[in-house]
What does this fold into?
Amino acid sequence: MKEYRYERLSYDGWIEKRLTGLEETIDRCAAEGWSYAGNVISVFLSGAVNEVTLIFERDTEG
It folds into this structure.
């Protein structure tokens, strides 16, 4: 069986937008045994993506 974890990240910047905390979030989740499974747009405003949710998964016992 799988369990899932959702981490919502915001874009920061005016001209060049970057996901705030992306590397730290991936490193932290990986250290805790989570594998990256995908992402989904969480907030879309004024023609731009403002937030995304990263999805992580891991196997559970039982």
